[in-house]
Every structure is written in C-alpha cells, then in structure tokens.
Amino acid sequence: MTTYARAHTNIALIKYWGKANKQLMLPATSSISLTLNDFYTDTAVTFDPELNQDQLTLNHQMQSPTAVSRFLDHVRHLAQIDTRARVTSLNHVPTAAGLASSASAFAALALAASRAAGLNLTPTALSRLARRGSGSATRSIFGGAVIWHRGSDDQSSFAEPLTIQPTLPLRMLVVTVSDQKKAVSSRTGMANTVATSPYYQAWVQSNEALISPMITALAENDLTTIGALTELSSMRMHAAIMAEEPPFTYFLPETLRAWQLVQEQRALGIPAFATMDAGPNVKILTTAPYVDVLMTALQPVFGDRILSTRLGPDAQVITKEQFNDTESAITSQG
After folding, report:
1. Separation between Cα atoms, residue 331 and residue 161, nearest integer Å
2. d(Cα 288, Cα 243) in Å, to the nearest integer?
3. What is the CA radius of gyration of the chain?
4. CA–CA distance, 72 with 110 (Å, rounded to integer)
5. Which among 110, 235, 271, 332 is most buried, taking Cβ atoms within 10 Å?
6. Which of 94, 264, 269, 240 minimizes the C-alpha distance to 175?
7. Domain residue ranges in the chain
8. What is the mean pLDDT of residues 51-57?
9. d(CA 97, CA 306)
10. Would you tell me which CATH number, out of the four given (3.10.20.440, 3.90.1150.10, 3.40.640.10, 3.30.230.10), belongs to the domain 1-330?
11. How many CB atoms are located within 10 Å of the residue 300 CB?
C-alpha cells in the first residue's frame, strides 16, 4: 500500500545551528520556528517485497537513495521489517537554496514511511523520527509556532507546538535572492562552524538565552520583541559562520540590499524584520496589513522573486489526488 504525506517548510525565528550529538542529530540549542503555508513537500512511500534496494525519485529525477535509506532503516527498525521502499518526492520549494527544503522533505518522509510501514506514531514520536533525517524536520511535523527542545538524548529532543500560539496575522515575505544550489550545504557549513569558529560557544549560550523571551513575546503578540529577537538570532548565527576557517558567508550582494530595505521600511514605521537560514535568501516577518507596502518597496529590486505566505499546518496524510495535483503543478512550472 502506498501512503502519501505532505509537510511544510519552517523558518526558525530562534535558530538551530550546530549539533551536540551528530549520530542522534541532537542540537546544541533549542529553537523556535514558524511553519510556512506555501512551501511544502509531498512524498509517497511504498514498501515493496520485490525491491532489493530502496529507490528515490525527486521531482521526476532518480536520485541516490543513500540518505533516504539510512533514514528508512530507522523506520524499518521501529516496524520490525526489512522490506525496501519506493519513495517518490515532490518538492514545492527550491531544493538546497536556504528555504528549508530538507525540513519539509524528511518530515513528509517520516509520516509517509511510518504509516506505510504500519506504524501509527504519536506526534512527539514522529517529531523525534523526523529529527533523524534532518534536524529542522523535527519542527515541520507541526504547524504554527513550534519549539524544538534540544534535549540530552533521543527521547528528550523533540518539537511541539507552543502552548500559547500568537494570534497576530503573521506573514512572511520570502525574497529569493538565488534559487541555485548552495555552494556549502547546511550540514557541511554547520559542522565547520562548530569545529573552527571562535564565536561558536558564545553563539550557543546567547541563542539559548533567547528562547524564553521569544516564547513570552509570541504569547503576548509583541511583534516588536518577536522581530528584534528574530534578527538577533539570525545575525549572531551568521557572525559565527563568517568567523569559521576558512572564512565563509552565505550573504550575496542582494542579500544585504534586502536587509537594507527592511531597515529603511522599519525607520518609516513599518513593522518588518529580516532573517536568514543557511543560504542567501531573506525572509521578512511582518503582519498582513503591511504586506502590500513591503511588496511595493521590494519589487523595484527583486521583481517577482517575492512571495507572501502565512503560517502553515501540521504535516498530514494526503490523498493520491492531492499528490497528483502537486505533480501537475511542478510539471507545468518546467
């Protein structure tokens, strides 16, 4: 039987960067994110006794199944099976361009594969499973505002929705500076920052200290504080990255231009706050009434490379028809 699942990308307001345990994918700090509605991955999984190895197709292209097989081994262990699987994944988000495609990909795979294997995991267990594929996938199991507890072992490192969700009409503008594959992957860049940046331990301590204030700000709908903490976490992370050996940055010239435009709009009284993950693309946090104003300010520089999105839902099992609709949409986009 084939199971189809959809999971959405997330953008961390308080960042995850660096592992305390590589084998278990335990993070060095806790993190808080927002799940986004318009970027997602649909994945179909079939365990087939006739297969002698796992198969992976991503956006109609056959791929090496190595990472997926390693992840599916966790599912097989939980389900006490050894059957190989056929995985078909449709990424409705540029892959490896700093838009958290791995988060939605492994969250969708965790849900589809576990259900196809006959498991019915709790949301917490599903979050822990997704973590074994990609750290940020832990958070994409849930919609809205999500916290990932760093924990100290496999059982204690998981994500969950924040108890009090913000009621602000939050919106995220995603400015695509580049949709090309990153020169340095998140995993490689993260490991090098941990190993060589003299600022890394300071990053860990300062970032963990932002968790509690962010929870409070979200619960109180304090957009000014939410935005200030978001920018602080992002810039501190990138400062640690820039200080690694050899020095490196994900920033491109247009990245800095986007940040400058955000600061200019904020000086005019527009609530807008920028953040970046491991890539050059800029995400701008604001609320619904200010989307058009920001679009007008950004379009002379970025044209149609801006998308406004709202908060997205939990990962969910979908129908074959929904999966086929995504496939048709991706095909029509070329």
Report:
1. 34
2. 36
3. 19
4. 8
5. 110
6. 94
7. 1-330
8. 97
9. 15
10. 3.30.230.10
11. 8
Please name which of 231, 59, 209, 35 lies closest in space to residue 136, comparing C-alpha atoms.
35
Tokens 């020169």 locate to 183
Question: What is the rounded average pLDDT of the residues 138-165?
Answer: 98
| Full-model pTM | 0.95
Which residue in this structure is represented by tokens 């002379």?
Answer: 300
pLDDT in tens, 58-117: 999 999 999 999 999 999 999 999 999 999 999 987 654 556 689 999 999 999 999 999
- When mean pLDDT is compared across 90-99, 145-154, 221-230, the lowest value belongs to 90-99
b/e map of 306-330 (b: 16 or more CB within 10 Å)?
bebbebbebbeebeeeebeebbeee
If you search the block for the tokens 């808080």, which residue do you land on?
32
* Nearest alpha carbon to residue 108 among 1, 2, 3: 3
Output phi, psi for 90, to 5 deg: -120, 115
For strand 85-92 and strand 55-58, is the pairing parallel, antiparallel, or unpaired? parallel
- 317: tokens are 């099992």
